[in-house]
Specification:
7 strands; alpha/beta; TIM Barrel; seven-stranded parallel beta sheet; metal ion binding; 272 residues; metal-binding
Length: 272
Amino acid sequence: MDVLLTEEDFYELAMEYLKKAHQNNVAHVEMFFDPQAHLVRGIPLDFVINGLYRACIDARAFNVDAHLIMCFLRDLSAHSASQLLDMARPFRNKILGIGLDSDEHHNPPLKFLQPFAKAVDEGYHITMHADVDQVDSIDHIKQALEIINVERLDHGTNIVEDPDLVDWVKQLHLGLTSCPLSNELITDDDLKGDEILDLLDEGVKVSINSDDPAYFGGYISDNYTALAQEYRVTPEQIVQLAKNSFETAWISPTQKETYLRAIDDYVVNFNE
């Protein structure tokens, strides 16, 4: 991370990722970034956001629709998160949503109630990490859903431990962004495939995603492949996982319809 110093550095980093996403046939990206990790190094916020955003714009040249989700680091204070939100106000039109990531231990969602309330007031979409198999996972998920009122839950497969939570997520049509390869690394070699497929069969809008691919060793195709190789995944389940990613994306109904139709067309052509 220490090599990221200039706006151009952030541009090149994002562009290389987006090119790789394109090679994986990704059409739409909602990309997380953690400005606080760079601010403490003395990197100006405009270097971070403008560099990443320029890459998102330039990715349109190869038909990748890319957007930014700015995350609060949960091991920092709520005051720091609120300050970041204030600092980012001049860049509001470049940021699609607000998220929460990093160390979950002793850092529950309620710690960030006020910054997220402010984010909603400012018109941001909101999501939040609920990392797998953490201490107080279920309580943290309940806080995120019932008090913070997130629109989406990142990871979150621990809801299988509470049938009422599963029903609640289904009623909300709320998406879970699961990342098998990072699951495997932060647990005891468990992709959480059983949980993913059980939730899928229950009608939960779970999807497959990449998580820090340079660190966790896999882009989106690698995550699908790992799941399919380890578990008895049917073609129909793969299709539904892909559709869920668009159904829970922060895009217009017209865009959703276009992407879902493209999946259906691909399946028809693949089966011919």
